[in-house]
Design a protein that fits this description.
- 15% of the residues lie in helices and 33% in strands.
- The protein contains one helix and twelve strands.
- With 171 residues, it is α+β, with helices and mostly antiparallel strands.
- The longest helix has 25 residues.
- Strands 1, 2, 3, 6, 7, 8 and 10 form a seven-stranded mixed β-sheet that branches.
Length: 171
C-alpha cells in the first residue's frame, strides 16, 4: 500500500513538473523601447539694451523711432508662452525713484510695449506681467518695441534705470 501511495504521489508530482515545463516552453517575451527628452525652456532677448536718451518732462519716446526694436527668441525645445514685465525707474544716484503707473504724475512714469511695430501699445501693469505672445515654437522669435513717458514733474533729474523682464513658460 505504501508503494502504491508513493507511485501515486510521484505521478502527480511528475505531471505538475511537466505542466510547468510545457507552460514555459510556450511562453514568449517582447521588449518595449522607451525614450524620453528633457524639456528645455529658454528665452533670450537681443539686443537687450535700450537708451531713451534725455527727455523733457511728460514726454514719450519709443524704440520704433530709435530703431531699437528688441527680439525675444525661444531657445528651448517646446512651445513657450512669453510674459513681459517692467520695473519702477530706479534712480542711478539713490535719489527719487519713479513709480510705474498707468498714467503720468509726480514721480510717476508710464512704460508700454508693442508687438506690432508701435501700431498699438499696452501698458505694463505695476508689479505684474502681461503675456507678450501666446505661443512661440522652438527657434522662433517675437520682436517687440518699448515706449516710455516721463513724469509730469519730478523731485530729481538724475538718470533712471528700468528693467524689462521676459519670462518663458512651457505651454
Amino acid at each position: 500500500m505504501k508503494g502504491k501511495k508513493f507511485i501515486a504521489i510521484l505521478g502527480i508530482f511528475s505531471l505538475a513538473v511537466l505542466s510547468f515545463g510545457l507552460a514555459a516552453i510556450g511562453a514568449t517575451s517582447v521588449g518595449v523601447t522607451a525614450t524620453v527628452t528633457p524639456q528645455n525652456i529658454s528665452v533670450t532677448v537681443t539686443d537687450g539694451a535700450v537708451s531713451y536718451g534725455t527727455l523733457d518732462l511728460n514726454t514719450s519716446r519709443d524704440t520704433v523711432a530709435g530703431t531699437d526694436t528688441q527680439t525675444a527668441t525661444n531657445n528651448g525645445n517646446v512651445n513657450e508662452l512669453f510674459y513681459i514685465s517692467s520695473s519702477d525707474a530706479i534712480s542711478s544716484t539713490a535719489g527719487t525713484n519713479w513709480n510705474l503707473e498707468a498714467t503720468t504724475g509726480v514721480n510717476q512714469y508710464v512704460h508700454q510695449f508693442s508687438t506690432n511695430s508701435g501700431g498699438s501699445y499696452t501698458n505694463f501693469p505695476a508689479n505684474n506681467s502681461n503675456a507678450l505672445i501666446a505661443s512661440v515654437g522652438p527657434s522662433l522669435s517675437q520682436p517687440f518695441d518699448l515706449k516710455t513717458t516721463t513724469p509730469t514733474s519730478t523731485t530729481g533729474y538724475e538718470q533712471r534705470n528700468i528693467t524689462v523682464t521676459v519670462l518663458a513658460t512651457a505651454l
